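re: ur question from earlier - yeah i can do the single chain one, its not a big deal. heres the input i used so u can compare w yours
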Amino acid sequence: MNTGPLGQKRGIGFGILLFIVTLGVYGWYWAYKTQEELKLRTGEGLGGVLGLVIWILISPVSAFVIPSEIGKMVARDGKTPTVTGWTGLWLFPFGIFLIPAIVWFVKVQGALNTAWEQGTAAPAAPAAPAAPVVPSA
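and the output i got, formated as tokens:
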């Protein structure tokens, strides 16, 4: 069950623009925040610092890990995930092609935004029925 706080929705177009304008440096921030929010929400996963180190040193691994963690989070709440670890194949070979990299980001951030929008949490338990009022004599 996902019980931690929801993450922040991020604009997909704005994120792509920042990736391009900052020559990829925004990706470091994005990877850190995304993986930290996932860990806070689910209590599992790499978390921000380790996720960022992997993003910097062996980024192809992150292409598979990030959508996998999103998919697991969504599935844990009984919903059908739109991304899985297989989504990382969009970045093969290693994100050097711009269009597949954009498709990957749109799919991943879109799934994450949807998850944050829907709360990806099980519906709240119904309130306990009120105790019957017994008139006093």
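Residues 120-126 have pLDDT under 50 and may be disordered. not sure if urs matches, ping me
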